[in-house]
Amino acid sequence: MAERAPGARRPRVPAIRLEGVTKAYTGRVEPAVRDLSFDVAEGETAVLVGPSGCGKTTTLRLINRLITPDEGRIVVDGDDVSGAEPDALRRRMGYVIQQIGLFPHMTVQENVATVPRMLGWSKARRGERTDELLATVGLEPSAFRDRFPRELSGGQQQRVGVARALAADPPILLMDEPFGSVDPVVRERLQDELLSLQRRLRKTILFVTHDIDEAVKMGDRIAVMDHGGRIEQYATPAQVLSRPASQFVSEFVGPGATLKALSLTRVGDLEPAECPVLGLSSDPAAIRAAIRRAGTEDALLVDDAGRPRCWVTVEELERRFDALGEAAIAAEATVRRSDDLRLALERMVSTRAGKAVVVDDAGACIGVVELAGVIAAVESLRSHASVTARGREVRPLSPVSD
Amino acid sequence: MALLRRLALPLIVSGVGLVLAVWVGTQELDSIEQRQLNGATLLEKIVEHLELAAAASVVVVVLAVSLGIVLTRPGTRRLAPAVIAVANVGQATPSIGFLVVGAIVAGIGFDRVLLALVAYSALPVLRNTMVGLQQVDRSLIEAARGLGMSPTATLLRVELPLSVPVILAGVRTALVVNVGTATLATFVDGGGLGDTINSGIRLGRDTVLVTGAVLTAMMALLLDWVARGAEDLLRPRGL
Ligand SMILES: Nc1ncnc2c1ncn2[C@@H]1O[C@H](COP(=O)(O)OP(=O)(O)O)[C@@H](O)[C@H]1O
Ligand SMILES: [Mg+2]
User: Domain residues for B128?
Assistant: First the structure.
């Protein structure tokens, strides 16, 4: 059976399951995590998001068995972790700690090969694996493998941290604010790279962040956590944004929830707008007829290759029927089917036409989207929470723990 | 330039040695002085002295570093204050007291002197080992354990390498202390340059006294210089 075939649908088996886990650190009265239950399905990215000190790191440390729960059970791949040999368990889970934690006295290569070395891989195999991983996380192996951590920028260190966690190809990744200490531009890039990596690798990822935008972007599911490790809502990003389960969640998501939700829907999911599309050299009378027939205000003119050139209205046709190419508004706002609505909205409002042309890879027009379409999408997101980011089916809202 | 700075100390020490040799050479030496200040005797005393200091330092490193490791492990960390208190007593007691008490209790000779030197110089190594291990960033240990390194592997591959600079600084201190304290071995028949110095004092021969004292100082300075070089060599790259 080709179990790992790309795109193969597998049953939603929990790779990680917490059942009523409580942990109080010694000397503390209040538990850091109280009666915590949730599970992460195999091959999914679950995000734990919540304010600082709410118990996110504690949760990861519990799963990793760096600390043991006072109460409750943690099951990884069907086995209760309390029965497992801790070091062996940890080697099955790549762990990216919050402080990155690269060993300063080891080269990048030695850092990345930490787990393979413990597993007794030969030197040659470790070297090969390191180079492969460095390339995977976007670092040129020959330039980086012999450097020491202090010779790397913050972003490069975080890449090495991720490579180190991936080294022995563990099925599970625990990532504690892995992109926490880099500037927004680098963070955005690292997020995109992890997303594309995850599309290929299909690991089970438990990703921790305090940033709701990052959670929405990275997660298949988001667990919004309040102090004491209390999960307020565990649902898809669309559901969390459009139907917050509690006051805490809506406050945590903040006022921009609708705009954030826009990033979850793709242009391709929108209802295309009605719009006549004609060649630049078309007869003005034909254009006028097409506009009248479609009942729109204007028409889009495209060049011989189908690339959008300009919008023309009936009035403009009458005034300047001899110079259509120069007429009216250049059709500069273009989007692709895979772009999200946030970008589409941005493009629409930055041109006088108030709409954007959807183009294919060659830049040829394949449709038009309008503000009305975006509003309709937001509307439907809110009423059904039915359109999700990556075309996943929607699961019912999970019950809020009390 | 850097090389010159590096070689400054041995050059100065050699210079001092030369001045000493010339000065002794110009003195009219009587038979007592001649018996002390000849090449063979001095060499023998120097070798004895070095043996004492080196042996004590090796024993101290083995004992104090191991103890330092034990006293920073989770289970046994509680014992640290008590052990440090004992080590402080060792350091605070005048070294001659150690030798005499040691001699009364255990007799005289190389081993007893060694015991006294070890007790006296263990503290800097012990303290630096503990400080060195404690200052290792907790998050690195968390990372190592989180990746599945055993406690022993974490100690050997992360904690100790990162403590090496601090531990070696303690070892260097112990070495210098041992060279100095080994001069007292003469009082319990332990040999070394203390013999030379002591005969100078007892027989009222200043040339002998000065020679013994200057040689001891030269030895301490040179060993400190060597140890400093070793520190640079052994410090992990990347720090
Ligand atoms: N080693 C520890 N000893 C005692 N208390 C701790 C320890 N680590 C964390 N805590 C406390 O537990 C709570 C949860 O911490 P943590 O899980 O680190 O939160 P987060 O990762 O969400 O910021 C906090 O109140 C924190 O102060
Ligand atoms: Mg944390």
Answer: 55-234
Residue from A373, A368, A311 nearest A337 by CA: A368
Cβ burial of A66 (10 Å; 0-12, 13-18, 19+) is middle
| Residue appearing with tokens 């013999």 | B195
| Structure token digits, residue A364 | 């040829």
- Do B158 and A104 count as a contact with CB atoms less than 8 A apart? no
In a domain, B224, yes or no: yes
Q: How far apart are CA B50 and CA B27, in angstroms?
A: 27
Q: Average pLDDT for consecutive 10-residue bins of chain A (402 residues)? A: 44 84 93 95 96 96 94 92 88 92 96 94 96 93 96 94 94 94 87 91 95 93 95 93 92 85 85 86 86 88 88 76 58 87 88 86 89 84 53 40 38
Task: Please report residues of B whose CB lies closer than 8 A to that of A97.
Answer: 139, 142-143, 146
Residue A317 tokens, joined: 């046709």
- Separation of alpha carbons A334 and A350, rounded Å: 11
The more confident residue out of B156 and B93 is B156
CB A49 within 8 A of CB A223: yes
Closest CA to A138 of A156, A165, A150: A156
Of the CA atoms within 13 Å of residue A102, those in its CB half-sphere come to 31
Q: Which residues does residue A205 pair with via DSSP β-bridges, in sequence order?
A: A45, A173
Residues 6+ apart with CB under 8 A from A238: A261, A264, A381, A385, A387, A388, A389, A394
Residue B44 lies in a domain: no
Residue B1 within a domain: no
What separation in angstroms does the CA of A377 have from each of A222, A253, A335? 21, 20, 16
Any CB–CB contact under 8 A between A87 and chain B? yes
pLDDT for the residue numbered A258? 79
- Taking the C-alpha atoms of residue B196 and residue B27, their distance in angstroms, rounded to an integer, is 17
pTM above 0.90, yes or no: no
- Surface of B (162-181) touching A: CB under 8 A: 162
Q: What is the CATH number of the domain that holds B229?
A: 1.10.3720.10
Distance (Å) from CA A94 to ligand 1 centroid: 21
Q: How far is A347 from A370, CA to CA, in rounded Å?
A: 10
Tell me the C-alpha to C-alpha distance, in Å, between residue A119 and each of A16, A91, B139, B148, B158: 23, 9, 22, 10, 17
Looking at the 3D structure of chain B, how many domains does it have? 1
Residue B136 covered by a domain: yes
ipTM of the complex: 0.84
Q: What is the pLDDT of residue A10?
A: 52
Ligand nearest to the CA of A31: 1
User: What CA–CA distance (Å, rounded) separates B155 from B135?
Assistant: 13
The residue nearest atom 5 of ligand 1, judged by CA position, is A25
For atom 18 of ligand 1, which residue has the closest CA? A57
Residues in Cβ contact with A245 at an 8 Å cutoff, skipping those fewer than 6 apart:
A232, A233, A235, A397, A400
C-alpha count within 13 angstroms, C-beta hemisphere, residue A48: 29
> Between the CA of residue B40 and those of B17, B43, B45, what are the distances in Å?
16, 5, 9
